[in-house]
Amino acid sequence: MATDIEGRLARELPAYARRVVDALEAAGYEAWVVGGWVRDALLGAPGHDVDVTTSAPWQKAAAVLRAAGVAVHETGTAHGTVTAVVDGRPVETTTYRVEGAYSDRRHPDEVRFVTDVREDLARRDFTVNAMAFHPERGLLDPFGGERDLAARVIRAVGEPRRRFEEDALRVLRAVRFACRLSAAIEPATQAALEACAPELDQIASERVGQELDGILATGRAAWALRHEFAVLAAAVPELAPMEGFDQRSPYHAHDVLEHTARVCAGVEEFAGGRPLPALRWAALLHDVAKPACWSEDVSGRGHFFGHPEEGARVARRVMGRLAIPGEVTRAAAALVLLHDFEIRATAPSMRRMLSELEAAAPGQARPLSFALLDLKRADAVAKAPKCMGYAVELDAMTAVLRAELSAGAVWRVRDLAVGGADVIRERGVEPGPGVGMVLAQLLEAVKADEVPNRRDDLLAWLRW
Ligand code: ATP
Ligand code: MG
C-alpha cells in the first residue's frame, strides 16, 4: 500500500528514468532509484540527477538497455557503473555492490558485487543518502533516512567511526550535506568525524577541493566555519591560524574566524544568494594571511600590512593544490588582493578598480568589479559597528560603476579609440615596446578624465 509520499514520488520520477528501471525489471532484474534523487524528491525538490542501482551485472544491464533502444556508455565498469542515456538525459546505473577494505583510507581495495539491495544501501555514507525508491514497491529505507531527513539530521550509516576510517572524505561530505540541508550532525557521527578529520590529509587534494567547493556552493560556509572549523582546518591547514586570532584593532570586533564567517554570510546576502564561485572563495580566504602579517605598534594596536598580497598568494597556492579551475582561482586571488583597495564614488576611481582587476584576472574585470564591491560591503558590515557606514558609501560606488559600465567604461588599452598604428604615425615612434608605453600613458589620461575617449581628441593628445 503506497503512502501519499510514495505516490507523489512515483508521479515525479521522470519518464526517462522510469524507462531504465522498467527495462531492467522487464528482463527479470531488480532496479531502484537511489541516493540524491530520492533524498531531494522527499524534500520536494525532485530536480536531482537520477541514479539507478540494479541486481543486473553491468554487462547484462548494458545489454538489456541497448536491446530496449537505450544508448549505454561504459563509464565506470570497474565499479559496475554504466550510463544510460534516454532522451539526452543520463542515468547512472550501477550494479549492487559493497566495498572491500580501505587499506589506504582512500580507495576501496576491491568492489564486490552483491545480490541484495540492502547491502548496497548499507555501504552508503549517510542515512539520508541510503534510501531506494521504486515506483511500485515504494520507499526502501532500512536506516531511517526519511525520519532523519524530516528532522534535518546527518547520521552515518552503521558505526560512524568505522565509516569515517574507511573513507575520510566522508568527514567533509557530512559537513557539505549538513550545510546543504540546514541539518545538524548527530552527536555520535559528529564525535567520529572530529576524531577522523586529521585523516583528510590522506585524501587526494582534488577530491577535497570538490567537497570544499561544494560546501561553499551551499551558501552556508558561515555555518561550517562556526560549527565545523576543525574539519575545514584539517582540509585546508592554512585556515587554522584564523581561529581565536585577536586582531587588537579598533576596526574589528571579532577574531579573524568569526569575521570571516560574517563575510561569507554577507556575500550571500549582498549577491542575492548567487555570488560567483570566486567571490565565495575570496570571502573564505580574504583575511587568511592576517595572522602571518600581524604586527603591533607602540600603542599596542594591531596592523596587518601586506595581508591582501600575501592572502592572494595563499589563495593561489591553496586553490591550485585543490585543483579549483584556474579561472576561478585567478578571480578569487584578484578579489583577495584588492579587498582593501581604496575606492571612491567617482568614475576615475571605478576605472582604476577595473584596471587593477583586469591586471590580476585578465578578461574578468567586469563581473569581478561587482563581486569586489559585494566583498567590500560584506567586509565592512563584519567589522566593528563604526565601520558599517562604509557599506552605504559602497551603494553610491555601485551606482557609479553601473553608470560607468553602461557608458562604455575604458579600462583596457583595447578600449581606447586609437591603436598602435596611430601612435607610430602620430608620434613617429618605432614599432616595439615604446608604442605600448605611449598607449599605457594615454589610457591613464583617459581613465583620469584628462582626455575624452574620442578618436579626434586622442589623436590630438598624441600629436601634442
Ligand atoms: P549531490 O547532489 O551532491 O551529487 P548525491 O547524493 O548525488 O548528492 P554523490 O556524491 O553524487 O551524492 O553520490 C551519490 C550517492 O553515492 C550518495 O547519495 C551516496 O549514497 C553514495 N556515496 C557517494 N560518495 C560516497 C562515499 N564517499 N561513501 C559512501 N557513500 C557514498
Ligand atoms: Mg550526485
Summary keywords:
single chain, 464 residues, alpha+beta, Serum Albumin, Chain A, Domain 1, seven-stranded mixed sheet, 23 helices, binds adenosine-5'-triphosphate, binds magnesium ion
Task: Please provide a written account of the structure.
- The chain is globular and about 85 Å long.
- Helix content is 53%, strand content 10%.
- A hairpin with a 3-residue loop joins strand 8 (132-134) and strand 9.
- The longest helix has 18 residues, at 389-406.
- The protein has 3 domains: 4-151, 2-Layer Sandwich (Beta Polymerase, domain 2); 242-406, no CATH class; 413-463, Serum Albumin, Chain A, Domain 1, CATH 1.10.246.
- Helix 8 packs parallel to helix 10 (205-217), helix 11 (221-227) runs antiparallel to helix 13 (256-270) and helix 18 (347-360) packs across helix 19 (365-381).
- It has 23 helices and 13 strands.
- It has helices spanning 4-12, 15-26, 36-42, 58-67, 117-122, 145-151, 160-166, 169-181, 187-196, 205-217, 221-227, 229-235, 256-270, 277-285, 290-293, 307-321, 326-338, 347-360, 365-381, 389-406, 420-427, 433-447, 455-463; strands at 31-34, 51-54, 71-76, 81-86, 89-95, 97-99, 111-113, 132-134, 138-140, 153-154, 184-185, 295-296, 302-303.
- The strands form 4 sheets. It has a 7-stranded mixed beta sheet with strand order 3-4-5-2-1-8-9.
- The chain is an alpha+beta fold.
- Bound molecules: adenosine-5'-triphosphate and magnesium ion (MG).
- Adenosine-5'-triphosphate (ATP) binds at residues 35-36, 48, 124-125, 129-130, 167, 169-170, 173.
